[in-house]
Amino acid sequence: MRRAPASFEHHPFRPALCLLAAALALAAPGCGGASGRGAAVLRPSPPPAPAPPAPAPAPRNPPPPSDAPAPEPEAARMFLSRAGQQPAAARAPVPRVTALALANTARGEARGMEPRGEVASLALAEGASGAIPVRVAPGECAAFIAQGGLGVIEVDLFLTRGAPTALEIVAQDADRGPIAVIGGRGACFSNPGAAPLALGLHAQVRRGEGVVLVQGYRRAPPAAPPGASPPDATPPSTSPPADPP
């Protein structure tokens, strides 16, 4: 007995159903799959972040920081206690190495300024001090440097006014070691008055002994506008001229 083929006699629509299922499967990604999510949407990328601005250039002579050291009270006490008893300091030849060190210090402390007169070279023992006279013009920006040479461990610098027996300290350095500076790095010592200021510039060796070079520097006041009178000039008279006799 022959067995009838079982291919499509009992399920005549199976091929069509298979084709329909395959078509639906292909169409599902475009219409949302079983998860119900739609097709991915392409969005433009955000623009790149702008580059940070370039840092501002540092000022050429920045002022001293707010946490700069304060002058040592012990230095002023020693100086004032011996001010009226100090003999005149002996002048000494300028050591070449110390002069080079002074020039190097001035490049940082008195940049853009010109020297005031000649370098004073003082030979000082421990506890001794020497003085030179200085004048600061009205509106002038001044700086002063004391550079200790071989053997000098601690040097102090003072600007004073008054008699030797009753000196008043106008300014004092706050440095440590063999270099002392007043008015350095743009924080210049200035004269706010209308007349020149006559002062004494004192270098003191608190520890050690040796040669100390002292030099002043200045930046000239801004030029007066055209037609303006110099600071010490007598203003022109505004009264009418007198009648001739």
From TrEMBL:
The keyword Signal applies. Residues 35-72, 217-245 are annotated as: Disordered. Residues 44-72, 222-245 have a biased composition (Pro residues). Keywords: Signal. It comes from the Bacteria. The keyword Lyase does not apply. Residues 1-27 form the signal peptide. This is Secreted protein. It comes from Sorangium cellulosum. The lineage of its organism: Bacteria, Pseudomonadati, Myxococcota, Polyangia, Polyangiales.
